Amino acid sequence: MKTTIKFILITAFLFGITAGSWAQKCLTPKIRNQNTIDNPNILKAIENIQIQTQNWIQNNTSSLESRSVVTLPVVVHIIWRLSEENITNDQVYSQMEVLNEDFRKLNSNFFSGPVPFQSLGADIEIEFCLASIDPFGNPSNGITRTQTFDDDMGMYEYYDDDLGGKDPWDIKKYINIWVCDIGDDGTLGFATPPGTADPVESDGIVIGHQYFGTNGTAFNSYPNDLGRTTTHEMGHYFNLEHLWGVWDGGCSEDDFVSDTPNQYESTEACPDFPYHDDCTFSGNGIMFNNYMDYTDDDCMTMFTHGQKMRMLAALNGPRSGLLSGNKCNTTSSSKLLNQDIFKVYPNPVAETLNIEFSGINDNEIQILEILNILGEKMMQISFNKTISLSTSELPNGYYFIRPVNNKENIQGLIISK
């Protein structure tokens, strides 16, 4: 760690911010900077969270592996003025699939990243569901729709019913994502890192509709058409910084993660490996394939173990309210299936899925369900010890597989043809 968040933010104030430096893909630094100007108490909150984060990491590093997977509830608020901004449920589902793939290191492009960095790639052991219960206890599909008469709603009062936006669901218990028009200046999205929202009702993630998911209005948004904007902003929501640091970069700034190489500034497009900048002159260069850089969606492949620990510190600290209650249909407790007795391969699967049980009686019948990301049962299978199952009738996407007799155990599965 080269400096503190507080010092970096104050430095940004002292030296001034030009309008040109705000025209960037992710406005998280700008929003945080403005919030600290409007409410100086946020600086103290950031400092306290940084201390809590470092303490949690120091006390939990030895237990990095073999954690229980947690599933967190998401509500997607679609705010639209033009009809094309009122994106379909399918576009929302496609984004949920990308989030789950990326956070579980199940993304199909993981091995396209530089080989020397692959050993640093982490399964964050966080999954996301569209909330099946709203704050009042009513059934929900986790999607709200609000028609507005305001342009560029994502840059204004997106979080307020009375101002043309949509009030958040309980910000402590749900991840609120607002999808709307966010302007045409090159901005893709932004998030509020823990403790930085002002007002607190704005806490969450805002994404331009054409950068959310992989189909619908996102289909023609290359190179930002694969849902990685939301992955990037979810990283910020769980307290990750850009690889080049909290603000404008330079070799003296830091992202507070030990296994991401020091980086001078953001990276565009998808450079050849190794790629060196003003902070790295030899070796493997910078980690341009990390989700917290600015490279093209198809170039982003991973979070690191250090970033995992920082996100888990947030989940067990300022974001711990997300762990309260069961607001997902998919599972009451997202524990992974015991891989010693239950094997599912290959994953991702193209056409044929192999399932094996060991340590059971010859006449014991196993019954498994395959669920989509909404918790809807797509298939039920009965067999003894092994089965080879055709997945040809299942669309590409992210699924869950679980035993009928033990619904607290679940395994993520990708169908990719």
What this model shows, in words?
Strands 1, 2, 3, 4, 5 and 6 form a 6-stranded mixed β-sheet that branches. The chain is globular, with a radius of gyration of 21 Å. Mean pLDDT is 85; it is low at 1-23 and 330-337. The chain is of the alpha/beta class and 417 residues long. Helix 3 crosses helix 7 (305-315). Helices cover 20% and strands 19% of the residues. It has helices at residues 5-15, 28-38, 41-60, 89-103, 115-118, 228-237, 305-315; strands spanning 70-80, 126-130, 143-147, 175-180, 189-191, 205-208, 335-336, 342-345, 352-357, 366-371, 377-383, 386-390, 397-403, 409-415.
Quick recap of the structure?
This protein is of the alpha/beta class. It contains seven helices and 14 strands.
Count of beta strands: 14
What is the rounded Rg? 21 Å
Structural class: alpha/beta
How much strand? 15-25%
Low-confidence stretches: 1-23, 330-337
Topology summary:
Layout: H1 5-15, H2 28-38, H3 41-60, E1 70-80, H4 89-103, H5 115-118, E2 126-130, E3 143-147, E4 175-180, E5 189-191, E6 205-208, H6 228-237, H7 305-315, E7 335-336, E8 342-345, E9 352-357, E10 366-371, E11 377-383, E12 386-390, E13 397-403, E14 409-415
Helix pairs in contact: 3-7
Primary descriptors:
globular, alpha/beta, five-stranded mixed β-sheet, 417 residues, six-stranded mixed β-sheet, disordered N terminus, single chain
